[in-house]
């Protein structure tokens, strides 16, 4: 069959696999299926162990596991130097990383601390800029960067607070990066995923209520899942989306269109 995705033997960095439920893991599995090489980055040793265990079922595929703490410029620089040296060109990056202090999600928004605000921004929004900068020397012609956002970037959602502000910054950073890197044929887009039960989602206090609301209100009358987000991410990484950059694409059963 014609290779319409053109991801075979391409090198894609997947950041943010913590366990099987991670959105990034769903994407990595699909990348293996379409023949890409997957370079995983992790922050905690615990995640490294988990990723290596999960990879036991994927020994026929080319992969690597590299440490990268997005709060540290040194760690990011080291990670991308290592990846660049080992793999040569980078054809895709999946940025699926976010973090905020639990208190800043639980408390009322006006109580957000200066430190908590800066930390959420640093980890969840600036990290996309920092990663693009460190990866730039290795990014191939036609490379695609995809980040994970959420509807809380543009609407006030209960319990999302400081993370909503960080996602707004992330989406704006995505657009500025798209404008900046477009001349070099590097694309940058965001996926705005519907609510999915993951480790990160555990930090959002009203998560169950959010899931119920989506089932009731979304055009498709159901929640979206890891695989659906992964499929669209594959499209955004692939040749099929070569004319698209600077966009936020909703994979949310249509929930965002409803009043
Ligand atoms: P997850 O907890 O599985 O993934 C979050 C990842 O971020 C983890 O692997 C964690 O290790 C990593 N991370 C946090 N701080 C880091 C740091 N300093 N350096 C490196 N890595 C760090 O949860 P997920 O739901 O798969 O989240 C992935 C992305 O998807 C996040 O950006 C999240 O905001 C976004 N998202 C999630 C949902 C949802 O409902 N689950 C919806 C929309 C968007």
How would you summarize the topology of this molecule?
Elements: E1 11-15, H1 23-33, E2 37-42, H2 45-54, E3 63-67, H3 73-87, E4 90-95, H4 102-106, H5 114-135, E5 139-149, H6 161-181, E6 187-193, H7 207-217, H8 226-237, E7 248-251
Parallel strand pairs: 1-2, 1-4, 2-3, 4-5, 5-6, 6-7
What features would you describe in this structure?
The protein has a seven-stranded parallel β-sheet, sandwiched between helices. It has one domain (11-251): NAD(P)-binding Rossmann-like Domain (Rossmann fold). The chain contains eight helices and seven strands, in the order βαβαβαβααβαβααβ. It is of the alpha/beta class. Helix 1 (23-33) crosses helix 8 (226-237) and helix 3 packs parallel to helix 5 (114-135). The protein starts with 10 loop residues before the first strand and ends in an 8-residue tail after the last strand. Helix 1 (23-33) links the parallel strand 1 (11-15) and strand 2. Bound molecules: nicotinamide-adenine-dinucleotide (NAD). Residues 16-18, 22-24, 43, 47, 68-71, 96-99, 123, 148-150, 193, 195-196, 198-201 line the site of nicotinamide-adenine-dinucleotide.
